[in-house]
Design goal:
Strand order of the largest sheet: 19-18-17-30-29-28-27-26
Protein name: ZP domain-containing protein
Structural class: mainly beta
Distance between the termini: 76 Å
Pfam families: C8, Zona_pellucida
Radius of gyration: 44 Å
Largest sheet: 8 strands, antiparallel
Strand content: 35-45%
Number of strands: 52
Shape: elongated
CATH class of one domain: Alpha Beta
CATH architecture of one domain: 3-Layer(aba) Sandwich
Helix content: under 10%
CATH topology of one domain: Protein Transport Mog1p, Chain A
Keywords: Disulfide bond, Signal
């Protein structure tokens, strides 16, 4: 609610009050003898109450910070005020007064009918006036109709006409410049250019407001939707420089100059731009070719004031140039939407609300700043978009700010920006949710879920795990407190992302109370997001929530991996001393060694195969072939990892019950068998089999390795000098 605090000067000499009462507690006062006009409505009752530092005079009930009542706020120094009625036998001088004793603050309504004034001795003076007072911000006093008051710079004068219309006059060269030609206002979807023409932005693109190519400067505005997809609002402005860092003015009075910066009331300079911030918004002052330009942005309205008009391009120069001023290369921002009409909007009430700009106190500025463009912007927006989230006052504030800049009329708005705007994510905006200010979902983003009656995305399934993500702002809008949600197992709660405000739940098939069922060829994992239900809670204000989600997978089957031998058999030619011989390795699928495995043969996991190692060219009466070791690797190098041993020291791997060695060291050939396998943790890949063999001189010694029972030990065998033979074979899936 816009609360004008208008500074007045009154020099009315009055007799002592006919009666005077002291008010120290909440009091309702009848003012029917001197009705109070506030925002065009006449009130005959006022409500006075105190809240610590302030006194409030309200017109439709006692002050309540959670309501939208019409009130005037004044300092409270003594927890008391005086109410008096003065009677000079003239009905036009009946008056009521509420005064904070010993306060020097003058407070009034939008006209001079009702105001507060303390004399030096603390007594109350008041008057029920039937004329308006022109207001002068820089002096803190009002100017009586038919008079002129000079400003502190001795160059600007405020002229108050006999009809209480104010205007300014300067003594320097700027007096020939039309004031309104210096101002451009962007509020909601509307751009009011420096000529007073207006146009509305109907999409969600970025536009050029001002551009000075010679200075390498462009002022951009980005528009985004809020509650409706078909109404856009100015969401941020960017000062773009051809050299140096850009400056972004964002929601929540945030400023980015390549990174966030902290501002205060003191001016800080970045890239030649003076930046400052107060409770109303951020101000940026720059110089374009020697001409000062001031930008103000409060999150809802951007106002650009040029001290001397310059030749610039953009919407502020010509609001109808939207097509040429559009900067966004992504055509998706131009997509048009048509949402259903809001049947809660009363067009007659909208007109009355917007026409306030022609009533006091704004009427004192009408002769200098034309209210029609602001009223048209107000009507165009509020006839499509509900008067929520502070929108009721937005256009009044925009006009008041324009008046303050041009005429020095001052309308102070006790309406700070919502505090949530410095934490909302990109798909959110700051608005009202069930009476509280919080981050709401932007309409286009929300429609992706609401059109399917969902609060979040679909379940993401992977192996035996799943996740579900819910949209934080949708939960808030539906009155759901995410801290009250959990899965079937109440210890499994969601994790809220602090940046995106997305709530994520994770579960696996064997955790968080997941239910596992089978349906024909499917295995289904089911869980649910539910509201915390504590038997110790006597009452609850949370709606019950039950969001069931599940994942289904095919029923696991015994997966057979088939391997093929690349070559039917392997032969190598070797030399050991005087012995020249060949060594072959063959694989068979039967114990009789009649079914040779070839390149077209499939070998299944756990299928037994027989490997035959035989030589040609050796005298079996003199030497024997001993298979010293055999092992498998997943790579072609015998030394690669991982490695799995089948035979070590001439004996079968005791840990693998499928390995059996036959005829080792008994002649010029031997064999062994094992069940086929693959390496764990890997996709099906080649299995390389490597065997290392030695030649053993028989003479009077046995060449058979000692492999019997627990007494197994390696015998001392006489090997023929020379490198051991190494032969390899590979299976591929």
């Amino acid at each position: 609610m816009l609360l004008p605090l208008l500074f007045l000067f009154a020099a009315a000499g009055l007799t002592d009050a006919t009666f005077q009462i002291q008010i120290t507690e909440n009091t309702q006062v009848n003012t029917s003898l001197c009705p109070i006009t506030y925002y065009g409505q006449e009130y005959t009752t006022i409500y006075i109450n105190f809240t610590g530092e302030h006194m409030f005079v309200c017109f439709n009930g006692y002050y309540n910070p959670e309501s939208n009542g019409d009130c005037i706020k004044a300092p409270n120094t003594e927890n008391g005020t005086y109410f008096g009625l003065n009677d000079n036998n003239n009905p036009s001088y009946w008056s009521y007064v509420t005064t904070v004793v010993q306060s020097s603050v003058n407070t009034t309504t939008n006209d001079a009918t009702f105001y507060v004034l303390s004399n030096i001795d603390g007594t109350a003076q008041s008057v029920c006036l039937n004329w308006w007072i022109c207001l002068l911000h820089f002096s803190g006093f009002g100017v009586k109709p038919g008079t002129t008051r000079q400003s502190l710079d001795n160059c600007t004068s405020l002229i108050c006409s006999n009809t209480s219309v104010s205007s300014t006059k300067r003594c320097d060269s700027l007096s020939n410049v039309t004031e309104t030609n210096r101002l451009c206002t962007v509020t909601g979807p509307t751009v009011i250019d420096s000529k007073g023409s207006l146009n509305s932005v109907s999409d969600r693109c970025e536009y050029t407001l001002l551009q000075d190519q010679s200075a390498g400067f462009t002022l951009k505005a980005n528009f985004l939707e809020r509650r409706r997809r078909d109404v856009s609002f100015v969401d941020s402005v960017t000062l773009d420089f051809s050299q140096g860092d850009d400056i972004q003015l964002l929601q929540g009075h945030r400023v980015l100059v390549s990174s966030p910066v902290t501002l205060s009331g003191s001016v800080q300079t970045f890239n030649g731009v003076g930046l400052s911030k107060d409770q109303t918004g951020v101000t940026a002052n720059i110089s374009l070719n020697g001409s000062p330009v001031s930008l103000f942005f409060d999150g809802t309205t951007a106002q650009i004031y040029m001290d001397v008009p310059v030749n610039l391009k953009g919407l502020c120069a010509d609001s109808s140039s939207s097509s040429s001023s559009r900067l966004s290369s992504d055509s998706s921002c131009q997509e048009q939407y048509v949402d259903p009409a809001d049947d809660t909007i009363n067009s007659t009430a909208v007109i009355e609300q917007c026409n306030i700009l022609k009533s006091a106190p704004f009427s004192s500025c009408n002769a200098v700043v034309d209210p029609e463009p602001y009223m048209a912007a107000c009507r165009n927006t509020l006839n499509k978009y509900p008067a929520v989230d502070g929108l009721r006052c937005q256009f009044l504030k925009a006009y008041a700010k324009a008046c303050q800049k041009i005429t020095h009329l001052f309308f102070s708005a006790d309406h700070p920006e919502p505090i949530c705007q410095d934490k909302c994510s990109d798909h959110e905006f700051c608005g009202d949710i069930h009476g509280n200010t919080d981050c709401r979902c932007r309409a286009i983003y929300a429609s992706e879920y609401t059109e399917q009656n969902r609060l979040g995305g679909p379940t993401v399934c992977k192996d035996n795990t799943a996740s579900l993500t819910l949209v934080g702002c949708l939960l808030k809008e539906n009155g759901i407190d995410y801290t009250h949600l959990h899965l079937n197992d109440k210890t499994c709660t969601g994790v809220m992302d602090p940046e995106s405000h997305m709530l994520k739940f994770n579960f696996s098939s064997d955790s968080c109370g997941t239910e596992v069922t089978t349906n024909n060829s499917q295995v289904i994992f089911t869980n649910a997001v539910v509201t915390r239900n504590s038997s110790s809670d006597l009452i609850t204000r949370q709606d019950k929530v039950f969001i069931e989600f599940s994942c289904s997978h095919p029923t696991p089957e015994l997966q057979n991996v088939a391997f093929k031998i690349i070559d039917n058999w392997i032969m190598i030619v070797l030399q050991s001393g005087e012995w020249h011989y060949s060594l072959t390795m063959k694989a068979y699928s039967d114990a009789a060694q009649t079914q040779l495995l070839g390149s077209n043969s499939d070998v299944r996991l756990n299928q037994k195969i027989w490997i035959v190692l035989e030589t040609n060219g050796l005298d079996e009466e003199v030497v024997s072939v001993v298979t010293d070791s055999c092992w498998a690797t997943s790579g072609n190098s015998p030394s690669s990892s991982p490695r799995y041993d089948l035979i070590t020291d001439g004996c079968a791997n005791a840990a693998d019950g499928t390995v059996e060695v036959m005829g080792n060291g008994q002649g010029t050939s031997n064999s062994f068998s094992f069940n086929m396998f693959e390496f764990s943790g890997k996709e099906p890949s080649e299995v390389y089999l490597h065997c290392q063999l030695q030649l053993c001189v028989k003479e009077n010694n046995s060449c058979e390795p000692g492999c019997s029972g627990s007494a197994r030990r390696r015998r001392s065998l006489r090997y023929r000098r020379g490198a051991p033979a190494l032969i390899s074979m590979v299976w591929t899936p």
